[in-house]
Design a protein that fits this description.
The complex is a heterotrimer of chains A (322), B (287) and C (388). Chain A is mainly α and 322 residues long. Helices cover 73% and strands 2% of the residues of chain A. Chain A has a domain at 43-246. A two-stranded antiparallel sheet of chain A has the order 1-4. In chain A, strands 2-3 form a two-stranded antiparallel sheet. In chain A, β2 and β3 form a beta hairpin. The two termini of chain A are 28 Å apart. By secondary structure, chain B is mostly helical. Chain B has one domain: ABC transporter involved in vitamin B12 uptake, BtuC. In chain B, a hairpin with a 2-residue loop joins β1 (128-131) and β2. Chain B is globular. With 388 residues, chain C is α/β, with parallel strands linked by helices. Chain C is 46% helix and 23% strand. Chain C has helices at 2-18, 39-58, 82-95, 107-119, 148-163, 176-192, 210-218, 231-243, 258-265, 267-270, 284-297, 305-322, 328-337, 353-356; strands at 23-32, 62-64, 67-77, 100-102, 123-125, 141-142, 167-173, 195-202, 223-225, 249-252, 274-277, 341-343, 346-351, 361-363, 366-372, 375-383, 386-387. Classes of the chains: A mainly alpha (322), B mainly alpha (287), C alpha/beta (388). The A-B interface holds A 1-3, 64, 111-112, 114-119, 121-123, 125-127, 129-130, 133-134, 137, 251, 254-255, 258, 287-291, 293-298, 301-302, 305 and B 36, 84, 87-88, 90-94, 96-98, 100-105, 107-109, 111-112, 222, 225-226, 229, 233, 260, 263-264, 267-268, 270-271, 274-275, 278, 286-287.
């Protein structure tokens, strides 16, 4: 990570207000158009942004996980199995999914995080494959390759959220909670510790930061968020299979994170907001859709190392210079 | 039983050699440029299409086609280095993410150009060699033979030419190599080009065995990954050892236990090796 | 975008043909796989719908209850993934307001979109082989192509009786579909008087079958069965089995895939292979469809395509019988009530009440063919009752 070495500095207050207003405006689009399909897309944006937010937490300590989909899958299966087999309310299934994903990440995190850089990427890649293979091998639990269909819908306190219009506010609330957690981490003492670990591991270690514990904490938190988003996805879509949580889903989270801004606080949200609706504009040009993705990814890496979230800052810097 | 052991041994060695062709290019690209190339499998796929075009469309002899595939792949690799990877030198993570994008572009580009259906590749040879109960298909023996020749030529190039020595110096230590006058402007494109050429020629060799379609790159990429993780990123002897090992494990577990057991055993092994020896069996420790 | 050009051309034609008559548009969704490994099936389905639409549009539109409709096909890709399919289905149902969807290709996608389509009374026509796709609680889902469950027994009876096959070896993908097919085939061979003596399971993306085949052939089987495998995998198995010197019979029960298998394995390896075929080039209408497909799209026809052409045409007839395009419950009932439909493949009827609890499975004639020089040569004609 050469270019985007340090966190972007926080912007001035009026700028922040402007962006907050813009976000609110985007968030209410479905209500303005009243289109059920727009509600669906908005909900998918919320779910992707949550998952990518989890990935960001791990990225803040300088590690990129390609097992993020596996943790989402872990959360999804946990919640679905608890809800369908033990009649747990869905509202408890979601945090249970987060808990299990986080616990697994905590246990395997210690040995895993001794690996750095591409080695960590490679082992998480292998883990994601292993998760998929093992899930395929236990059809009694996972439904095998046919998956599990007819998953109970989201419900709060016994009230089922049957329509998209009802799910969306709940999705927004969950997203707000996740983003709130991210802000808390980032602005607090933990954030500074994360930043120090990301920037220079040896230096952080020397200045008394417990780097191993810090990285594991980030990995645990990030994977727990993934588990939560996976559980949400399962109850919203109503269908999961081991293939749902394969390598490609992990890659798509990475693409959203990188496009949004790997180290920016709002990167995950911006990335999800930009990339989730994008296929809808490209459905007619379906053959070119993935090529366009690839080009966007490479172009962002090349020209916007801080991602789309860093674009305003980058532009204003250019403006200052000229 | 002893027949099955001998047959599994032969199958395993053949498989291992084919995996080695894939893995060695992958590990070379990493050794030289520090890039984990997720698009490596797509170059295998393009090589297979290249061979298909040469043999069935242009009617060229198979060896000529393979030679042309190598030449074009080296040139293509140099272009890719210039267009995609050059900005990410010394930035392993960005380079790797860029390769994910490149893989998407190449695979779906091939899909648009050639369509999703598998294409017929004419058999180069048919029949089997038999020693008692032991059987080796001639098509595999041919792929094995050409593969070994290519690996030998590559070995001689690395050991006994100026560029080969420069590449090895780069793998050993970038800075020292630069100090001693290794020209990075030539060596980076050459390293990636050679790595890609090995993947492409592997595709050309295996096209008659496994068929050709835009989606054939995923499995060899996975195998190369496993081999390179086991052997150590950037280590060529490590890749050789790990490739043969992988071929044997696959062949024996498939023949004596079951095919799905083989996959889980291999992934468990990969994770075990990474945890105990992160740099792989023969790799150098990082940092 | 293909759909707009077709529509434009068709409506231009229609203008000439019908003059000032009021034109309405009937939108039909095609939610199939157009990228990734399932794309050859997906394209076959989408194009079947497009050609069926072209037929009625060229004739001036589909006349239902006194109104003429131009049929517009709206095609979306699901990449063979359940999540993508859900998003595309949402868009089709709520944004494009379609009432009919040709799709999906995969089993997982159809199970994933059924909560949306069934609840909103959208008629779907899937290729997915899973038994769960059809059911009494899934009133709006139909399957116009026979699956292994429909064709296995008559075909296996015939082959066992005529080829003297006693023991069979088979490889299946290690997943629920593979295991289900393995169970079905085992029972079918047993019933026919043979045994499925050697079974092997493998991960779906495997390409090297030599170790597994070594084991199967060592057990001295008379035949190798390919059912349950994707066309590419089946082709690789054929080629590698012949490479290992296997000289017995190779059988493909269920799922038309001969062209792809020949492409992968080559003509020599596939010589003498017995395959399931849904397609008799001797039937003039079927041959005409294939020619038209190849001419229009410049690609070989996917074996499932004709089923979806017939299925779509039957759906048009159901709309006309019901006299509405809006009331899908009436259309669904009319669709169910169609009997002895003369399609391009032959005479079609609904079946499946015993097996699925609902008669939404199309029963069509099929054939056993022997592959000669890379081409199918029909050796027996079958219905679900038996082959001769």
């Amino acid at each position: 990570m050469s270019v985007a070495k340090s966190y972007p500095t926080s912007r001035s207050l009026p700028m922040g207000l402007f962006w907050a207003a813009a976000l609110v405006l985007v968030a209410v689009i479905p209500w303005i158009t009243g289109s059920t399909f727009h509600f669906h897309i908005a909900i998918m944006v919320c779910i992707s942004a949550m998952a990518t937010g989890g990935l960001a937490v791990t990225a803040w300590v300088g590690q990129l996980s390609l097992a993020h989909a596996a943790f989402a899958g872990l959360g999804a299966y946990t919640s679905v199995l608890l809800v369908t087999r033990f009649d747990l309310p869905v509202l408890l299934g979601l945090p249970a999914g987060a808990l299990v994903a986080g616990a697994v990440a905590f246990v395997i995190g210690a040995p895993l995080l001794r690996l750095r850089g591409v080695y960590f990427v490679l082992i998480t890649f292998a883990l994601n494959e292993l998760f998929r293979l093992i899930m395929l091998d236990v059809p009694a639990l996972s439904g095998g390759s046919s998956g599990i269909a007819g998953i109970p819908k989201l419900s709060i306190f016994g009230m089922t959220l049957s329509s998209y219009e009802e799910v969306y506010p709940f999705a927004l609330l969950c997203l707000a909670l996740v983003m709130g957690l991210l802000v808390l981490i980032r602005k607090g003492q933990l954030g500074r510790r994360f930043g120090a670990v990301e920037e220079n591991l040896a230096l952080a270690e020397a200045s008394g930061i417990p780097t191993a514990r810090t990285q594991n904490l980030a990995f645990t938190l990030g994977s727990a968020i993934a588990g939560f988003s996976g559980a949400f996805l399962a109850h919203y879509v109503g269908f999961i299979s081991p293939e749902t949580f394969g390598f490609q889903l992990s890659v798509s989270y990475v693409i959203m994170l990188v496009t949004g801004g790997r180290l920016a606080l709002w990167g995950p949200l911006v990335g999800a907001l930009f990339l989730t609706p994008l296929p809808e504009f490209l459905r007619g040009a379906v053959e070119y859709q993935h090529i366009i993705y690839g080009v966007i990814l490479i172009a962002v890496l090349r020209f916007l190392p801080q991602g789309l979230a860093g674009l305003p800052a980058q532009l204003s810097r250019k403006g200052d210079r000229s | 039983m002893s027949f099955l052991i001998a047959q599994s041994l032969i199958n395993g060695v053949i498989l291992g050699t084919l995996y080695l062709l894939m893995a060695i290019g992958f590990t070379l690209a990493f050794g030289v440029m520090r890039i984990v190339n997720f698009a490596h499998g797509e170059f295998y796929m393009l090589g297979a299409f290249g061979a298909l075009i040469g043999v069935t469309w242009l009617g060229l002899p198979y060896p000529v086609t393979l030679a042309l595939t190598i030449v074009f792949a080296i040139l293509f690799g140099a272009v890719i280095e210039r267009l995609v990877f050059r900005p990410f030198r010394n930035d392993e993570l960005s380079g790797m993410i860029a390769s994910l994008g490149l893989a998407m572009i190449l695979q779906h580009g091939a899909l648009i150009l050639f369509g999703p259906d598998p294409q017929a590749f004419p058999a180069m040879v048919s029949g089997v060699f038999k020693w008692g109960a032991l059987i080796v298909p001639k098509s595999r023996a041919l792929a094995l033979g050409i593969g070994i020749v290519i690996l030998l030529v590559f070995y001689l190039f690395l050991m006994h030419t100026r560029h080969g020595r420069a590449l090895r110096a780069l793998v050993q230590d970038q800075e020292v190599a630069a100090v001693f006058g290794v020209r990075l402007e030539i060596m980076y494109p050459l390293g990636l080009g050679l790595g890609i050429a090995l993947a492409a020629v592997a595709g050309g060799l295996m096209a008659p065995l496994f068929g050709v379609s835009p989606f054939i790159g995923a499995t060899p990429l996975l195998k190369a990954f496993i081999v390179v993780i086991l052997g150590g990123l950037g280590s060529i002897p490590g890749a050789a050892l790990a490739a043969i090992l992988l071929g044997l494990i696959e062949s024996f577990t498939s023949s004596f236990v079951s095919a799905s057991a083989a996959d889980i055993v291999i992934f468990a092994l990969v994770i075990g090796v990474l945890l105990v020896r992160p740099a792989g069996l023969l790799g150098r420790a990082e940092v | 975008m293909k759909r707009t050009t077709i529509l434009a051309a068709a409506s231009a034609l229609a203008m000439v043909a019908t003059g000032a008559l009021a034109q309405e548009t009937l939108k039909i969704g095609a939610l199939t796989t157009m990228s990734g490994a399932g794309a050859s099936w997906g394209n076959g389905m989408k194009r079947a719908a497009e050609m069926a639409a072209e037929d009625v549009n060229e004739a001036g539109g589909l006349e239902v209850g006194g109104t003429k409709y131009q049929v517009e096909i709206i095609a979306y890709d699901d990449s063979y993934k359940a999540n993508e399919a859900v998003t595309a289905a949402n868009r089709l149902v709520f944004e494009d307001k379609v009432k009919y969807i040709i799709g999906t290709v995969g089993s997982a996608p159809i199970l994933a979109i059924q909560p949306i389509t069934e609840e909103n009374g959208v008629i779907t026509m899937t290729l997915g082989f899973t038994a769960q796709a059809l059911g009494e609680d899934k009133q709006y889902t139909f399957r116009p192509n026979p699956t292994t469950a429909e064709v296995a027994q008559p075909q296996i009876d015939w082959i066992v009786a005529n080829q003297g096959v006693k023991t069979v070896g088979a490889l299946f993908p290690k997943d629920e579909t593979g295991e289900a097919i393995a169970g079905d085939l085992s029972a079918a061979y047993e019933k026919a008087g043979a045994t499925l003596a050697a079974k092997e399971f493998f991960e779906r993306d495997r390409v090297d079958f030599i170790p597994l085949l070594t084991r199967i052939i060592a057990q001295g089987v008379d035949a190798i069965e390919l059912d349950g495998n994707s066309p590419v995998t089946a082709g690789q198995i054929v080629q590698q089995a012949r490479d290992l010197g296997f000289e017995g019979v190779i059988i493909r029960t269920g799922g038309p895939a001969t062209q792809e298998i020949v492409n992968v394995a080559g003509e020599a390896a596939t010589e003498g292979m017995f395959v399931h075929s849904a397609f008799d080039p001797g039937v003039a209408s079927a041959k005409a469809y294939e020619d038209r497909y190849v001419e229009t799209y410049n690609e070989p026809m996917n074996g499932f395509s004709p089923f979806f052409y017939d299925g779509t045409k039957m759906l048009f007839q159901a709309m006309q019988d019901a006299g509405t395009v809006e009331d899908t419950e009436a259309v669904k009932t009319a669709y169910e009530n169609i009997t002895d439909y003369e399609g391009i493949l032959g005479t079609m009827n609904w079946t499946g009440a015993d097996r699925y609890g609902i008669a939404h499975q199309l029963d069509s004639p099929f054939y056993i063919a022997r592959v000669t020089g890379g081409q199918e040569e029909i050796v027996a004609r079958c219905t679900s009752a038996g082959c001769e």
